[in-house]
Amino acid sequence: MPFRSAFSQLFTQDTIIAWVVFGLVIVAMTGAMGYSWYRGRKGMGPLKAAEANRLELGYAGALIGMVVFLVISSFAANAKDYPDPPKPAVTVTVTGYQWCWRFHYEGTPVTSSGQCQGLRDLPVLEVPIGQPVRLNVTATDVLHAVWVPQWRFKLYAYPGHVNSITITIPRAGRWIARCAQLCGVYHYEMDFWLRAVPPATFQRFLRTGRP
Amino acid sequence: MERWLSGTSVVLIWGALNTILAAVLAGFTAAGRVGGAGPAGALAFAIYAASATLVFLIALAVWAGRRRLRGLKQPPRPATAVMLALAVAMAWIALAVGPWAAYMAAAPLLVALVLEVYPRTSP
Amino acid sequence: MTAPVKVVPFPSPAEEERDGLPQWLLTTDHKRIGILTIGTALFLFFLNGALALTMRAQLAQPNLHILSPQAYLQFMTQHGTGMIALTITPLAIGLGVYLVPLQVGAPRMAAPRAALLGYWLYVFGSLALIWGFVTPTGGSQDGWWGYTPLSSGAYSQGEGMSLWTAGTFLAAVGMLLMSATMLWTALRMRAPHVTLPRMPVFTWTEIVTCLMVLSGFPSLLLGLGIVAASRVDPARFTTNGWNIAYQNLFWFYGHPVVYVMFFPFVGCVAESLATFTGRRFFGYKGTVLSLLVFAAGSMSVWGHHLFASGQNVNDYFSLTSIFLTIPAGVEYFGFLGTLWGGRFRYTTSMLFALAFIPQFLIGGLTGILVANPAIDYHVNNSYFILGHFHYTLFAGSVFGFFAGFYLWFPKATGIMLNERLGKLHFLLLTIGANTAFIPMFFLGYDGMPRWMATYPAGAGFTTLSLISSIGAGIIGLGMCVFALNLYESARAKVPAGPNPWLAHTLEWSTSSPPPRFNFNLTYPVIRVHSYAPLLNLRERALAAQQERREA
């Protein structure tokens, strides 16, 4: 699943850089406090120098280098998330409305939905394990957004517009998906399940319309 | 720094940077994936280009503007400003309560006008 | 030996015969307009903060219904719009309206009636937003973005959303007017010897802020025009074009505005650090240049709010957003360089400035994380983002504001604030902010979306939400101490004198509070040779003293 692996790799890398920078700043601040105390004990006044241009230029150069690296890794990760889409095994139209979800499996008569109020009868989006699934995300009334935290992807649903994303879920399981755009009063309950099942089970689901 | 830095040049630097960045946006939009191509990308560029143009107009105004101090008197009739603010506010409130609020806005506007046309002589 | 100063003949301050509330409310004195703006914004700060505390109470445990979902969304919208459009932006602009003319040696600001008009538009805008709460359907429930079509007449009936549109528009025009007059003052009305490279860092931060307001806010006005149209004629807003247009227009304002709420406070921190280390601000040229590049570049990053929209040039906005690391890093170089070799005085202002540095850094570094689309696809619209921008806006900007507030309060009022209560205020705010906002990163990472009126038990959000709520309570306590400090200081009336902190910039050479036209015969505009003129004078006096002693 590119979204999850690209996220994990980039998040780890950039978090490490962030911690190093944070640590350096803390060290510099603590050092400056200690130095101030030392100068106080020696009866020295504050330093008069107000610039160190060569040091600053060198520092800016290092910053530019870091930024180039960060931008390249950002582009690379984004290209992994949105490659030229592989031919999907199945295409599902995901429709958000106030306040629930509806799934239509293209080329079949199967449409499923559920009750978003309370956790008992949440809609379930069924997908086959290991096969690319294309989600065509849209909405009927206001903006919504599909978010599956476990698989690290999110896409807005617009009325009058279709956004597409291709996902491949590698293993069996059931994960919560939430609406990630304020869409009115019951936004907080607008959840559904993403469930990955073996391809054979999935085919049976498409034939019968029942999980 | 002293030599080239002026009010106008500060605004011009701003405008130039934004022109460059807007041009880069146009390049990305032309080659873009993930929704970059298409009307949304063109729209984003249009907004940015309009804003960058506005900056050059500001630079022009700063360049043409004269430094002048019209003495140190209190500007007269500050109440005009309050009346004007009230009128604008009432006009907008019409969106919530109906057009009558906008008609009522004529009253503070009239007061503002009277204040400007017939200034009080004593401060 | 200094060259003879060409003194502009200032009149001695004509004593106002009557000086009461009407004179304040109709003032054309930039100092009073500034104080009115900051006072109004602080009042709203308490109000909008109280709303946040109520929301945190609701979120302390799962499935709580202290507030109905409708009321929660109203509180949340008022908290967001209120803090951004009616509190922190006016604080940022109001500080400049007060200080910029003083710092550049101008006797008054340009077009003061336009600034007064701006103040009143801001007041009427705030009233319109608050009015929403007493209408039958309550205030707006659509968040501070007011995205269409949710905000259209079809999906948000009632007056609340219309009043939100009107109020936000009025306040934005008010800020535009104030910024334009302030910019003109700084660029065109400086005392003859205050050249641009001799302006204090704070004035520079206000200049770039005004430029951001002038280039970004008109876009919001257009966007609000779209919302207003959708209130009247919602049928048109089923097409995608209007909705994506509104999002772009909104964020073309919405991103620059977060820097509008940032740079003036960078200026506050810079002045505070320079003052309380006794050093000239370090790397002035680099900082000024980076401010210009940073602020101009900030106009180009708005699309990073639309990474998950599927209708956005993600790579470009990732590039520009990450690029801002360079000027931000140069500013941090200035902060740390100023600290190095200073003689620290740990006043309340200095403590807030020192805490600003690592706390804003957390906001900035997590900002670099979310500038990556691949990371943002996960954390966008989650509590991670709430953690990120509360670190920048509260743990950063508000701390910077208090660094400035404790620094300049004696100048504006002539009396000192209580340092003991000030330090207690600082301590509670620091503990509270970090307790409240650190858990938000983990909540978002674990999958909690923002805008949730409540959450189910067993979703794994309970413990962290409770910790966050406790932190919010501590912040509330800290703000009570701040209110107490204001009351206590107003009662004690410890006189400040012109320069109680031995600060460096021009405003400290005049009386506290300054006379009507800022400088007069008793307090003339001193000759300015650098961006720290009073430090120059002190150093020269010290050198002369030493020479005498040696002779």
Structure description:
The complex is a heterotrimer of chains A (211), B (123) and C (551). With 211 residues, chain A is an alpha+beta fold. Chain A has 3 helices and 10 strands; from the N terminus they run ααββββββββββα. In chain A, the strands form 2 sheets. A 5-stranded mixed beta sheet of chain A has the order 3-2-1-5-8, with no helix packed on it. A 5-stranded mixed beta sheet of chain A has the order 4-10-9-6-7, covered by helices on one side. In chain A, β2 (100-105) and β3 form a beta hairpin. In chain A, α1 runs antiparallel to α2. Chain A starts with a helix and ends with a helix. Chain B is flat, with a radius of gyration of 23 Å. In chain B, α1 (7-31) packs antiparallel against α2 and α3 runs antiparallel to α5. Chain B has 5 helices and no strands. Chain B has 2 domains: 7-64; 79-117. Chain B has helices at residues 7-31, 39-64, 79-97, 100-104, 106-117. Chain B is an all-alpha fold. In chain B, 71% of the residues lie in helices and 0% in strands. Chain B starts with 6 loop residues before the first helix and ends in a 6-residue tail after the last helix. Chain C has one domain: Cytochrome C Oxidase, Chain A, CATH 1.20.210.10. Chain C has 17 helices and no strands. The two termini of chain C are 18 Å apart. Chains in contact: A-B, A-C, B-C. Chains A and C meet through α1, α2, β7, β8 and β9 of A and α3, α7, α9, α10 and α11 of C.
